[in-house]
Amino acid sequence: MATMKKLYIENLGCAKNQVDAEVMAYTLRNTYTLTEEADDADLILVNTCGFIESAKEESLTTFFTLRNDYPDKKIILSGCLAQRYANELSEELKEADAIFGNRDLRKIRDLAEALNTETKTTKPLCMVPEYPDPMEEDDTRDHLFTFPGSAYLKISEGCNHCCSYCAIPVIRGPLRSRPMEAILKEAKRLIDSGIKELNLIAQDLSAYGWDWDKVSHFEELLDKLCALEGDFKIRMLYIHPDWMTDRIIECVKRNEKILHYFDIPFQHASAPILKSMGRTGDLNSYIALIEKIRKNIPDAVIRTTLMLGFPGETEEDYRELVTFTKICRFNWMGSFVYSREEDTRAFDMTDEKTHEELSKISDKRQKKLQKIQEKITEEKLQDFVGNEYSVLIEELISGEDLAIGRIYSQAPEVDGLTVVMGRNMVPGNIYKCRITAVRDVDLEAVKID
Ligand code: SF4
Predict the structure, then answer these.
(1) Tens of pLDDT, residues 4-56
(2) Per the domain annotation, does 141 fall within a domain?
């Protein structure tokens, strides 16, 4: 019986990347056990992000730091950067032992075996397989990188929207919805294992199933997920504003298991900018959408993402974004400055010099806009004080009668947290708590049951 080796995964990027890392860890389970210490690892996987400049830089910096710290260990560069630049990296990144794409994660087993048998060459091994038939895909995971009680559940990969600035369709390909049965089976497995919060992820949840018959099957999937036995909640992460339909609102209203949390990246509010982004909508239609959601679901929590510095953005466009932010008063808003990405339609909408000039202006605008939002977020957090909520406890603070958790308005990793005062709490469980105060973007609470 061969001794089990140790695998260390450095996971970068988004929740979808994290699920891929969990699937790769499961796929290697017969040869490797996971370790949280790179020191102890026989194999290191740097699971990269590659959709904008800053993410690419962070991925390469992380890789080189690990390479410098562990000159003799086997290191595989996987994830979106590896998928997007496989040709260049397999020629130039001699420091890596292998480059692995992110379309057929089962093949990580073959690559790990090849690394153990083949002698090191001057160039990294490179494996960038195409997607398998969705019916053959095995997305089983037995180790989650999320805190106890919550899990991400990927319902599709790729995207057909092709927003002009976005490299994700280049990396992940066209929309590819997972078979509904496979998602329901995985959800049931997660719920049976004690998961209390399923965070649905995709490039755009609302397009689910559209690749089958040009109709969205998202509400159908939500109804079926909510019909599953068990005490759990569903959070929707990432719905394209142009596809945020009345049907989704009605589905949320008829299903208590769906959290009143809407993550809708509007990106902008100026009609000409949205048009050149390959999106529809404008300031008024987007404000109307927010008002409709809040009218139908009064305690709806809305998160959005806004982009500044898109080619051609004027002072007037920026003013519309400020107006949009002030009128809509989002609970949470993240903003970033446009990254000029090759192989996207927007790349040729400007030149490097003009882009750099607009980026400088946009950096300042972005900071101002985020300041406006910080004040709004704090004010909106006051609405929670004095009320009682279910808190999913994620970790205990040792030596204190304190624990950290999240309520329905707080998505994992991106929003604030709830610090709960009380005893006998177990991570992964849910407790009734009363919110007592706001501390920056976090809430303070006392346990009441
Ligand atoms: S919907 Fe999102 S993932 Fe799809 S192209 Fe647009 S920005 Fe990219």
Answers:
(1) 999 999 999 999 999 999 999 999 999 999 999 999 999 999 999 999 999 99
(2) no
Burial 78-96 (b: 16+ CB within 10 A, else e): bbbbbbbbbeebbeebeeb
276 in the same domain as 156: yes
Task: Say yes or no: CB of residue 403 within 6 Å of ligand 1.
Answer: no
Judge if the beta carbon of residue 166 lies within 6 A of ligand 1.
Answer: yes
DSSP element (H, E) containing 39: none
Classified as helix, coil or strand, 398 is coil
Helix, strand and coil percent figures for the chain, each rounded to 5: 40, 25, 35
Q: Is the CB–ligand 1 distance for residue 44 below 6 Å?
A: no
pLDDT in tens, 256-274: 999 999 999 999 999 999 9
Domain termination site, one of 347, 380, 413: 380
Q: Based on C-alpha coordinates, what's the Rg of the chain?
A: 22
Q: Find the 411 Cα to ligand 1 centroid distance in Å.
A: 20
Q: How far apart are CA 74 and CA 207, in angstroms?
A: 39
Q: Are 191 and 206 in contact (CB under 8 A)?
A: no
Ligand 1 mutation target, pool 156, 163, 238, most atoms within 8 A of CB: 163
Last residue of a domain, one of 329, 356, 380: 380
Structurally, the chain folds into a number of domains equal to 3
Kindly state whether residues 109 and 158 are assigned to the same domain. no
Q: What is the mean pLDDT of residues 261-288?
A: 97
What pTM was estimated for this model as a whole? Answer: 0.95
* Residue 203 CB–ligand 1 contact under 6 Å: yes
Q: How far is the CA of 83 from the centre of ligand 1 (A)?
A: 17
What SS3 state is found at 52? coil
In a domain, 164, yes or no: yes
**Would you say 159 and 210 are in contact if contact means Cβ atoms under 8 Å apart?**
no
Q: Which two tokens stand for residue 135?
A: 């019916």
231 inside domain: yes
Distance CA 411, CA 69 (A): 34
Are 35 and 7 within 8 A, CB to CB?
Answer: yes
In a domain, 287, yes or no: yes
How far apart, in whole angstroms, are the C-alpha atoms of residue 217 and residue 210?
7
Residues 169 and 33 in one domain: no
Contact 139, 186 (CB under 8 A): yes
Q: What residue numbers bound the domain in which 395 lies? A: 385-447
Specify whether 156 is located in the same domain as 123.
no
Q: How far is 296 from 165, CA to CA, in rounded Å?
A: 33
